[in-house]
Amino acid sequence: MNGAFEVGAAGLRAEQKALEILANNIANVNTAGFKRSETQFSEILAQRANAEIAEPVATGDILAAAGGVRVTARETFLSQGTLRPTDNPLDIAIDGQGFIELMGPNGRSLFWRGGRLQVNEDGLLATAAGLPLRATINVPMDLSALAISADGIVSAETTAGDRLELGQIGLVRVERETELERVEGGLLQLVDGARPIDTVAAEDGSGRLVQGSIEESNVALTEEMVQMMIVQRAYAANAQAVQIADQLAAITNNLRQ
């Protein structure tokens, strides 16, 4: 097979993956706490090109690509998004690099950048999707007001006028962004072997909690659109390379006849 086909096809696959990631960023531009991802590319080494010169290849052999590009990583950027006040006491955001730890299915730890809270069927403070906070904050049935301080202290006022301290929401952080991977629902989890660092909000450098606000995504729509145009042009160039290789193959076949 003509190596140009392999190179062009590898480029098409890589640019298609980059386009999918850009489209996901743009689709989630209004998703609270969403963190944008970026594709990392690397060159495919030309392992067969020199070998072909020294050792002729028999007719019918399938040649490896003489070069090209491939996607080697999908990097997630955890930069701070803008905090948007909502005045809803059940909305919570993090001003900093920390995460709220959640109890996922089968006890798995999931990490959340905040959003809308609710009281689930077990009386625990949980996300809108029903995942309880790892801090297991029990909320009284006769709740009339809920307050969350910057250091995560959760206090409530009952309909009888009693004031109760319910617990404290801690934050966790990681040493490197590569220790986290994205899961469904805008949540993150640790990769195998990584360990979270438990911190106290507003004290240990992981940020502070902000009640009544939502963190917007860190997607810059203009930058994403520019990148999309660059990817589109690269895709078109690779498609043209495949087309020209096909035309050359047709010329070669006609010469043989």
Automatic annotation (TrEMBL):
Where would I find the Flagellar basal body rod protein N-terminal domain in this sequence?
6-35
Q: What is its main location?
A: other
Location in or out of the cell: Bacterial flagellum basal body
Keywords associated with the record: Bacterial flagellum, Cell projection, Cilium, Flagellum
Q: Specify the Flagellar hook protein FlgE/F/G-like D1 domain's residue ranges.
A: 93-156
Residues annotated as domain Flagellar basal-body/hook protein C-terminal: 211-255
Which PANTHER family does the record match to this protein?
FLAGELLAR BASAL-BODY ROD PROTEIN FLGG, FLAGELLAR PROTEIN
Which family, according to UniProt? Belongs to the flagella basal body rod proteins family.
Its protein name is Flagellar hook basal-body protein
Q: Which organism is it from?
A: Pelagerythrobacter marensis
Organism ancestry: Bacteria, Pseudomonadati, Pseudomonadota, Alphaproteobacteria, Sphingomonadales
